[in-house]
Amino acid sequence: MLSNSDIEALEDILFAEPWGDDALDFFGFHGVVCASVVGPVELSAEDIFRLATGIDEAPDGGIPEVFMRCAKQLAGDMVKALDMGQALELPEPEDGDPMNALENWCAGFVDTFLEHEEKWLDAASEEETADLMVPMLTLSGLFDDEDFQNVRNSDMLSRQMADAIPDSLTDLYLLFHAPD
Q1: 14 close to 32: Cβ distance less than 8 angstroms
Q2: Low-confidence residues of the chain, pLDDT below 50?
Q3: CB neighbour burial string for 17-31, b if at least 16 within 10 angstroms, e if fewer
Q4: Which residues, 6 or more positions from 42, have their beta carbon under 8 angstroms from its beta carbon?
Q5: How far is residue 164's CA from residue 132's CA, in Å, rounded to a whole number?
Q6: What CA–CA distance (Å, rounded) separates 135 from 138?
Q7: Is the pTM of this model over 0.90?
Q8: Which of 9, 157, 161, 172 is deepest in the core (most CB within 10 A)?
């Protein structure tokens, strides 16, 4: 896991000018990295930076070293946990609203999925992939679908969806990365 100082350094980068208004927070960044790990498309640090900051191209000055190091370390920790049969743990805020943090995490994950949706749906059974994506799609807050809104408006249903995410992540990882 990343240290508190790494997380602070990441958020300093994410909230910096000129992309601060469109950037994800640490939870969204974690979601982007997680989607890169469990999905069929491994993203470069530049792609992760682009998705996390909401920009179209990497900056001329390059990606900050601390950002690349943190993305690589976080991805490596996730792969190691999944390869050892452990469920991924989502980050939780030390204070504030845990459901807001989860929504931000899901938004980062879903943005990454949507960026490469065709590859995700072509790499395995489209139906199975879609079923496993339901908790993240529902809790991301990115869709106005009435069914998704009904779930988000119910504390019990939202908690059930949140509780399903670690298993969905493991199943997605196995779907795309387990040997045939």
Answers
A1: no
A2: none
A3: eebeeebbbbbbbbb
A4: 36
A5: 9
A6: 5
A7: yes
A8: 172
